Amino acid sequence: MRPLAVLACLLPGFLSVPLHAVEAGDPASRLDAMSRSFRSLDYHGVFTYEQGQSLSSVRIAHAVVDGVEQERLVHLDGEQREFVRRGHRVDCEHAGDRLMRLDPAARFAQRAQTGVAGAQLGDHYAIEFDGSERVANHRGQRIRIVPRDPYRYGMNVVLDEASSLLLKSETTDGAGRVLERFQFVDLQIGAPVAAAELAPETPGAHHAAGHAGAEEPAPFAWTVAWLPEGFVATGREVRSARAGGPAVEVQSYTDGLAVFAVFVERTAERPPHAGQASRGATVSYVVPRDQEHLVTVVGEIPVETAQLIANGVNFPDATP
């Protein structure tokens, strides 16, 4: 699961809208403000990320310098790992970066930045205020997000009352069970972030740049016959797999809250049957198609949704 070069800038001009202009009585507007605050504010702290039976603690530092984001995430337990991001302009959204990262905690730390308007989310989710909650010594406003169909998960989020920054988030299934939980345990908002907090320390630190990388292999033809309503494509990438191996084409999608990707590989090395795996809210479903393709759907969606999407991938140029 690695970075996509997403070209679309979904939030041009949002910096002209002050965060304090958000109406407190409108939960959809609060979600719009959340997508801006996560990218436009300086903040640093520690959050926990619970996914299934796994719990990790991560230190995050985020700053905006001359309109460009800088971010560093460091795991505080287990193997020493860190993720550094540089060079993304605050007014340009790279939705695939959240989905296609090595580290699910790094991915989740920025899922709030999708940039799809709350009004559009309201077509597919019921959004309502659900009281208040204190998180990491910040007073927060709780919002409940319930899907209007069975093809996506729900969420409970807590936003800082002053800045709308995401303080806590729970991803829930149709029965209301919590599948994943993100929560700050220590957080400073608006205080200057020292340059040392943004500088990598681990030799193997993963870096993401705000520009396209090396030349990509030529794409091959495929389409998706079915998607849940509201999901839109956010970028397609063709990448080489291992040296000398087949190319893999990746298309990412989002509805503004959920994110998933379709991986298509042309290869003779295919499993005989479909398979699936899940961890928390993240599912991976793989199925061989026709005589030469392998399709994998990975994302924060129910497995039944992943199955429908994967089985709807078509290949106009496939060998009969």
Topology (SSEs and partners):
Layout: H1 27-40, E1 43-51, E2 54-65, E3 68-75, E4 82-89, H2 95-99, H3 104-109, H4 118-121, E5 125-135, E6 138-147, E7 154-160, E8 166-172, E9 178-189, H5 195-198, E10 206-208, E11 223-224, E12 232-240, E13 247-254, E14 259-266, E15 275-279, E16 282-289, E17 293-299, H6 303-311, E18 313-314
Parallel strand pairs: 4-10
Antiparallel strand pairs: 1-2, 1-9, 2-3, 3-4, 5-6, 6-7, 7-8, 8-9, 11-18, 12-13, 13-14, 14-17, 15-16, 16-17
Structure description:
By secondary structure, the protein is mainly β. The protein folds into two domains: 14-208, outer membrane lipoprotein receptor (LolB), chain A (Clam), CATH 2.50.20; 223-314, Phosphorylase Kinase, domain 1 (2-Layer Sandwich), CATH 3.30.200.100. It has six helices and 18 strands. The model is unreliable at 1-23, 89-104, 112-116 and 210-214 (pLDDT under 50).
How many extended strands? 18
Main beta sheet strand tally, sense and closure: 10 strands, mixed
Q: What percentage of residues falls in helices of 4 or more residues?
A: 10-25%
| Intertermini distance | 31 Å
Q: From the helix content, strand content and strand pairing, which structural class follows?
A: mainly beta
Radius of gyration: 19 Å
Mean pLDDT: 78
CATH superfamily of the largest domain: Lipoprotein localisation LolA/LolB/LppX
Q: Treating each run of at least 4 consecutive H or I residues as one helix, how many helices? A: 6
CATH class category label of the largest domain:
Mainly Beta
